[in-house]
Design goal:
single chain; mainly alpha; Growth Hormone, Chain: A; 20 helices; disordered N terminus
């Protein structure tokens, strides 16, 4: 059953009111359960190392796989949403997340954790999160921006509560029983999905959007048939399969936009490079603090401080960036936030005292709020909305690749040097270089576009004057009105 069929079975409900606010509440909880969950994994880092006798690099693969799959599973989630609907995909994600964490509590090796907690839980979180965000677009029209901003506060709540709960359960019953309880908590994604009832869409909206995607394949098939080829001919079948594969790739992975749109190209490369260092503090901050003598409970509190400040700063950042003054300039705010993230890492290098680490968390949280609030908003600024979903697919897959390899490579560096300072040096290098690359590249692109527009405007005026002169010529000379009409009609 497709999304359109699923939606059609639902009753027509008024948007932006009534049950829509219950769906928004479910989306807040959903984002706290999914996006907020990986932040607590660093609390178990030392225990998992001792349990499995693993190195920093081997242990860091576990959260890296989880976060990479969480971000990179978007295209697969989009396919499932179109086929089965948002409600089903959210509940499927909750089931996978719970199953993955329950299975993790019985793991006998660190490699088994890669499959259970990393792949299965990460994929389930991806399904629940992205389908939950999608359903908000059906329930909210007028208040859609507000709804997305409110839903994103769930991430901050998750960042605040998950570390505190994790440290409490770890002290009381160990990591295995804690993972078992986490499996039960993540099953609540199914409850959130049950609240997200299908809503009736505008009649014919989905079939119309599907027609252009089917036309190239049907036209190719008609061309082959007109040449006498049988519809079951092997050559025709192979050609049709290739055409359909190309359509799927173009829909969910916008390589054509990447090649043609310079703004999207710069932004995607910059964010992909940035993600090599962005997740490192989340993975290594707690082990770094414990390694330098900070009590485990206080070390876990550091992540909660980041999340607590995010609750208040992220909505303010979203409101500020939405002001018309920043229209077309949000990329510079984003670059500034990334730059601040990179510079803040040097605080940890100076000292590992608890008071200094609190200062670091405050500054990092403010910068992270800007990055989190602007990441997708900037993407909407550089890509047309009718191709946003496909641009988002390529964007998330590329950034998930660097999210996957960043922490393990840094962990290998720490294993070789036995110095946690290299975590923050590495993070600062990637963040600062990415911020400078994006800011300077967009500045140069903006200047180039202004020069192009100025030269185009300069050339347009003479051409218009020449056209007016030609229109005063005798009728005998200009005998091509059909051609003129044809050109203007195109």
């Amino acid at each position: 059953m497709s999304q359109g069929e699923a939606a059609g079975r639902g009753t027509a409900k008024p948007q932006d009111q009534g049950w829509a606010w219950m769906v928004l509440l479910a989306a807040v909880v959903l984002q706290g359960l999914t996006l907020g969950f990986p932040c607590c994994i660093g609390i178990f880092f030392t225990d998992l190392q001792h349990e499995f006798q693993a190195s920093n690099s081997e242990t860091s693969w576990f959260p890296s796989i989880m976060v990479a799959v969480l971000h990179g599973g978007g295209p697969l989630c989009s396919i499932l949403v179109k086929r089965f609907g948002c409600r089903f995909v959210v509940m499927l994600g909750g089931l996978l997340s719970g199953l993955g964490m329950v299975s993790s509590s019985f793991c006998k090796s660190i490699s088994q954790l890669y499959l259970t907690a990393g792949l299965i839980t990460g994929l389930g979180s991806c399904f629940s999160f992205q389908a939950g965000v999608t359903v908000l677009g059906y329930y909210f029209v007028r208040w859609r921006t507000l709804a997305n901003a409110v839903a994103s506060t769930g991430v901050s709540l998750g960042f605040t509560l998950w570390p505190l709960l994790s440290q409490f359960l770890l002290d009381e019953m160990g990591w295995r029983n804690t993972f078992l309880i986490f499996g039960g908590i993540l099953l609540n994604c199914c409850v959130c999905g049950a609240i997200m009832r299908p809503i009736q869409l505008a009649s014919g909206s989905l079939p119309q959007s599907a027609k252009p995607e089917e036309e190239p394949g049907s036209r190719a098939e008609e061309a082959q048939l007109s040449n006498g080829a049988s519809p079951h001919h092997p050559t025709l079948q192979q050609h049709t399969k290739r055409t359909k594969c190309f359509q799927v790739l173009q829909k969910y992975l916008a390589f054509d936009i990447f090649c043609q749109n310079k703004g999207y190209q710069i932004y995607t490369i910059g964010v992909t490079w940035m993600m090599m260092g962005f997740a490192l503090p989340h993975v290594y901050l707690v082990p770094y603090a414990i390694h330098n003598g900070v009590e485990e409970r206080k070390a876990a509190l550091l992540i909660s401080i980041i999340g607590f400040i995010n609750i208040f700063i992220r909505p303010l950042t979203g409101l500020l960036s939405g002001h018309r003054v920043f229209t077309g300039r949000r990329i510079y705010l984003f670059s500034l936030a990334v730059l601040l993230c990179g510079l803040s890492n040097f605080i940890c290098v100076i000292s590992a005292e608890f008071s200094v680490l609190i200062l670091y968390c405050v500054i990092l949280s403010i910068a992270m709020s800007g990055v989190g609030a602007l990441t997708f908003q900037v993407l909407m600024d550089v890509v047309e909305m009718d191709r946003f979903s496909s641009a988002l697919g390529l964007f998330t897959i590329l950034e998930s690749t660097t999210l996957l390899i960043g922490p393990p490579l840094t962990g290998l560096l720490v294993d070789i040097t036995s110095d946690f300072h290299y975590v923050f040096y590495t993070s600062s290098f990637f963040l600062i270089s990415a911020a400078l690359f994006m800011g300077l590249s967009f500045c140069a692109l903006e200047k180039k576009n202004k020069l192009r527009e100025a030269s185009k405007a300069h050339l347009d005026n003479p051409s218009r004057y020449q056209y007016s002169e030609m229109s005063t010529e005798p009728k005998a000379v200009s005998q091509s009105p059909p051609a003129v009409e044809y050109i203007t009609s195109i």
